[in-house]
Structure formats: C-alpha cells, structure tokens
Amino acid sequence: MKNRPYILTIAGFDPSGGAGLVADVKTIEAIKGYGLAVCTANTIQNDIELKTCYWVDVEVIKHQIEILFDRFTIEFVKIGIVQNWKVLNEIIDVLIEKNKKIKIVLDPILKSSSDFDFHKSNNDSSDLDVKQNNFEQILEKIYLLTPNYQEIEKLYTDKTIEETIVHISNKTNLFLKGGHREENVGKDELYTRKGKRFTLNAKEQNVSEKHGSGCVLSSAVTTYLGLGFPLLKACFRAKRYTEKVLSSNDTLLGYHRV
C-alpha cells in the first residue's frame, strides 16, 4: 500500500467545520492525503455568521511549523487566512527554510463568506496595500494563488482584472475561481507562469452554495499535487471534487465522501 503524502494546511479554525483547517483536513483525507494542520486564528463563527477573529501569535505558528517539519516530510502546503501580508511572508520564509523545494498554494482570503473582513478587523489599512513589498515577495515564493473574483478585484485596486491577471501570472501560477462571477458562474481559469491559459467549466448542475467552498478547492488542489498530478490535472480534479461537495446536500455545510 502506498503511503499517503503529508499535506500541511496553515489556516484558521472554524467551529462549524465548514471552512478553515477542519474543512481542509476533511478534504485532504478524503482525497487520500494525510492532513497536518497549524492554526493561524481562532474564529467565533458558524456557517452563517462570523463574529470575531482571534489571531494566533506568529511565533507560535512558526514553532508548530518547525516541529512538524522536524518529524514529517512535507512538500506541499496550503495557506488560508493569515493576519496580514507581513506575517504571511514570515511564515513562508520558515517553510522555505525547512524545505527549499516546498510548493505553496495560497488562498488569499480577505473576507469570509458571511462578509467578515479579516484584515479590516486588524485595524491596519496597510495590511491591504498589496503594492507593498511583502505581497510582491509572497507572489515570487508561492506556487499557486487561488483567489475568487471578489478577491482578485481587491488585490490591485489600481489595475483592471485583466491587468492584475497578467501581473500575477508573471510571478506565479494563478487559479481564478469563478464562483463569484457575474457571468458564467462556475467557470474557473488557470493561468500559468509559462503564459498558458486553461478554462475549466462546471460539470455538476445540481449544486448549492457552501460555506468554505474556497477552502475545499484550494486544499484539494494541494492534495492532488501531493499525489503527483501536474498542475492542470490537479486543478481539474479539485474542481470536480469541490462540485461533489457542493452537490452533496442543500445546506451550507457540505459532505465529504471518502
């Protein structure tokens, strides 16, 4: 029997289990990886309301990462909510120090599905100024960025979406999720650093909105990469897995089938 790859999620804790590291580990395990988790934030939320977010001290996050790498071989990491770009940059540097070939999938969550603004809650508007050095450095260090349409619009407010896509894909691979598109809802697009563009259309029709669907998709991509699939196939399979979760029931909390 082939050993499962260790997949690390660095994300927030959602008590409802629909999003964050709980949803990530459910996804990783269902796709036949082994989920490791480091918590970046404790949230007070359920599937429809997020009241507040308590950030974990960055030194605690670093120490948890270090002890996991001391024990396990980790080649693929998914990152969700982090306090700000500076903290994220520090976390990424620790990952690279532990494994120079690490592949990082970053889901740049700026708001929850219940419209809670994570960065605004930090009372530091500079956290959203992605034109600063920290975010540019982050793009150079990660393997894949997975924003939705609402997120990519806010990453570079001085650019159009088309200009932002070009800018980001010159630095890293970009998987643009289509769940929040005004037209062609569900159509995702993959832009590679090599200049290629692929369209991934929706297959499932009987889907309903789910709390944490972006977390599921990004952790699924990471796991399929860990299982040895090339980027395009990993994104395609992750999309199909996410669609199964979206069609699993008509509530906001999807089921994961092993």
Automatic annotation (TrEMBL):
Coiled-coil annotated residue ranges, if any: none
Key words of the record: Kinase, Transferase
Any single GO CC term annotated in Swiss-Prot or TrEMBL for this entry: cytosol
Annotated pathway: Cofactor biosynthesis; thiamine diphosphate biosynthesis
EC identifiers of the protein: 2.7.1.49
InterPro entries, sorted: HMP/HMP-P_kinase_dom, PM/HMP-P_kinase-1, Ribokinase-like
Enzyme class: transferase
Residue stretches making up the Pyridoxamine kinase/Phosphomethylpyrimidine kinase domain: 14-249
One GO molecular-function entry: hydroxymethylpyrimidine kinase activity
Annotated signal peptide: none
Gene Ontology annotations of biological process type: thiamine biosynthetic process
Pfam families, sorted: Phos_pyr_kin
Name under which the protein is recorded: hydroxymethylpyrimidine kinase
Organism: Aquimarina algiphila
